[in-house]
Design goal:
By secondary structure, this protein is α/β, with parallel strands linked by helices. Helices cover 27% and strands 17% of the residues.
């Protein structure tokens, strides 16, 4: 069997001063901190921190990752996150629609009580079934498209490593499915911070391990307050 690793990377912090659930709405780009996160992860993976990017505490402590493919969701925030990674390895940046954010009825709104969308009865019918979920793209559909993208990338880069830049919910749902766990969950318990790496290790086409890392952990406290996915 041949060992291959697929790294699912969540995009960096997004410029979203109004706290909108932006979902698939085009035009939402990385904040300055988000760009710093993207460059930091590129340096972490390549072993060559980008010019002007803060050095990682463990720079030089590991060999560069053997990345053969970098592919991103078509949304701007994912493309901007993936660009420095692709550049660090001298690779073209690929795009895969299957890595896109989950569809959501509430995108473009503030989600919550008070001034949020939950105060309006017209939205309540979308909340009746959290197991599906009734407010957006079904979990099973997210798993199907994400797992297909993951296995296609794994096959293309057999024996090496791949970076797929996507979004929090699709990444987390993909992980739950690989682990054989239920797909409905409390969003507050997702282990998928900004610019994190959920690394899937395959032996041939068989998943043999999952490893989670946060290369920008020291940048997260302020970023954690930004809404979005």
């Amino acid at each position: 069997m041949v060992a291959t690793t697929v790294h699912l990377m969540r995009h960096g912090e997004v410029f979203n001063p109004d706290g909108i659930l932006y979902g698939r709405i085009p035009g939402y780009h990385l904040s300055e901190l988000g760009h710093t996160m993207a460059r930091r992860v590129a340096g972490h993976l390549s072993g060559k921190p980008a010019e002007g990017a803060p050095a990682l505490p463990d720079d030089g402590a590991h060999e560069p990752f053997d990345v053969a493919l970098v592919i991103a969701s078509p949304l701007q925030r994912a493309q901007e996150t993936a660009t420095p990674v692709a550049e660090a390895f001298g690779l073209p940046l690929g795009t895969d629609e299957r890595l896109i954010e989950a569809g959501n009825h509430f995108e473009g709104m503030k989600f919550g009580v008070g001034d949020g969308s939950l105060r309006h009865p017209g939205h309540w019918p979308y909340l009746w079934n959290p197991l599906r979920p009734s407010w957006g793209e079904p979990y099973k559909e997210q798993v199907a498209r994400m797992h297909a993208a993951i296995h296609d990338a794994r096959a293309q880069a057999e024996g090496r490593e791949v970076v797929l830049v996507s979004h929090q919910l699709p990444i987390w749902i993909s992980r739950l499915a690989f682990e054989g766990k239920r797909l409905w969950h409390d969003p507050r318990n997702r282990q998928c911070s900004l610019a994190s790496l959920t690394s899937l290790r395959f032996d041939g086409d068989r998943l043999v391990g999952i490893h989670y890392t946060e290369p920008v952990a020291d940048l997260l406290p302020g970023a954690a307050k930004v809404s979005g996915a």
